[in-house]
From TrEMBL:
One GO CC annotation: plasma membrane
Pfam families linked: Ammonium_transp
Protein name (Swiss-Prot/TrEMBL): Ammonium transporter Rh type C like protein
Transmembrane stretches, start-end: 42-63, 86-109, 121-138, 158-184, 205-224, 244-263, 275-297, 330-351, 363-387, 438-461
GO molecular function annotations of the record: ammonium channel activity
Similarity annotation: Belongs to the ammonium transporter (TC 2.A.49) family. Rh subfamily.
UniProt source species: Argiope bruennichi (Wasp spider)
Lineage, broadest ranks: Eukaryota, Metazoa, Ecdysozoa, Arthropoda, Chelicerata
Biological process according to GO: ammonium homeostasis
Keyword terms, alphabetized: Membrane, Transmembrane, Transmembrane helix
Amino acid sequence: MMCHGTEYDGLEVLNRYDIYVQDLEELNAPSSLRSMAFKGKFAFAVIFIQITFIVVYAFFVSYTEDADASHPKNHFQNSTESDLHALYPMFQDNNAIIFIGVGFLYTFLKKYGYSGVGMNMLLAALSIQWTIITHNWWNTKDGRIHLDMTSLLTGEFGAASAVIALGGVFGKVSPLQMIIFTLFEVLIYTTNEHFCIKGFHISDVAGSVSLHMFAGIFGCSVAYAVDRKVHVQNNPNESPSYESNIFCMLGTVLLWCFWPSFNSSLSTGDAQYRSVINTFLALLGSCMMAFAISSLLHKDKKFTMGQIQNATLAGGVAIGTCTDLMIQPFGALLIGSIGGTLCVVGFNYLAPFLARMNIYDPCGINSLHALPGFFAGITGVIAALIANEQNYGHSLYKLYPAMAPMHNSSELMEILKYSPDVAPGLARTAPMQACFQFLYVIEVMLVAILTGLITGIFLRLQIFDPVDDKQMYLDDPFWVVPEIKDKKSSISNQMNDSKI
């Protein structure tokens, strides 16, 4: 009896081992991803892109005069005062947001943590270099882009847009598709933002509409086009673990702490001071409401970790358009509280509705970025409608340049006596400015949907090695994962012991 039992146990372990090995072979062998590994498609694409960047930077990018040792004004020690010391702390905070905060936020899947942190780092590095080119080629001087701290900051804004939008196709595309996705997203984001700022003359210093709402809608639109060719829902690997949720929450806390720097990076003077205060208050409001609404909407009145990880941050998105405006502290708390509430409601009701329409959003970018971003756009309309010189003084014409009087007008001449840095505007009234703020929201929404669908259709081409259903939400097809080897070795030893 013992011999037969041992033999049976050994055969059972052997069968389990054969099934496990077969699963590994099916995961890697027949797919286009294995072909990609042999052809080196991904590596060659990245090398080509980086060499292209080096060539473009060599011919068209140089230091700003404050960093250029050959500039005459830098020939004497302490001859200039640059913006380095004022902006470098903000720059470092944004670095932490993009590379650490978002990276750990993307570790929520139990078998996709390597890709969450690793690919976020690669795509952010790609995005910053690409944004510096696409954002600044509209404003070259002597045919060259002059690189300063503001250029680096706007580069990180481009990276934020790209890695946010990536959430719509997170775990569902190959590394090569991610690279192509990022190139498209950054180009469209920077081009559309330039058009909106120069064409509509709007106020949205933290980019809640042009960055967050655009990225959220763009990512979901790409997902809709990509997901139509694969089965992305009810995948057993698309789930968190206790440990992965803790790592993700670490990213949330870091983002929460540094978000005021992100929103206030491009503001100056009293506007920057207000931006820090307003953003922090909004984050406090969204944190409170995230816990309250998450508990309220759960059938057992418990907290849902995925909602907490996102909704606590929604206040930072919701306040972005008004972050440097005179909305008063209670207004910042109110906006943040509504933003947190909208995010949880989006997770509970809108996400299932979109899933039924085959728009599957694994990272919840629609709830965290698109919904609060749209709300931020509406608050921007209201803020413009009530803006006046009594509340802002002459800084009104810096926050809303189009509302400044026209060139050579008597009103402008009077203003220039006291505020010589005010530029001529278009003499818009507050209601006119509010109308343009609303058109801005609609335009960004339409552009994000249209370009997202086109990008998604393009990414479905076989040349970019789309993933199979069984490869989604897994690191194994792309990374050397030690746990797989250990598990295989453990099964082999167990099988040998059983034979003995």
